[in-house]
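Following up on my earlier message about FE2/S2 (inorganic) cluster. Here are the inputs again, as you asked, copied directly from the submission form:
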Amino acid sequence: MQTTKVRIKVADYDSLPERAGQAVTINGQTIVLFRISTGDVKAVENRSPHRKGGTLADALVSGNFIYCPVYDLKISLEDGKVQAPDTGEVKTYQVEVFGNEVHITI
Ligand code: FES
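Thanks, got it. Here's what our run produced:
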């Protein structure tokens, strides 16, 4: 089945904390926005790849990676891949910033 992607404004850029997560809910999906130290904004689903579950909104940001505070998984904000020696993946979303508006495509 083909699903149509839509671009939605999800936050004001200046409301995003630096190097911390901010969860937003869009169409029933919770997504976490991370404003990283370069000023870029990354978006991942708010679901931990760890089999015991959990969320990523409280993950610690370091460069282009987040660290889950519970199991210390290191996850790339570029492609959502969990870094070795752990495995797994989270969904990432395309983010665009227009002036002060942060949009994601879902
Ligand atoms: S709770 Fe899942 S990686 Fe942390």
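One observation from looking it over: The first strand starts at residue 7 and ends at 12. Hope that helps, and feel free to reply on this thread.
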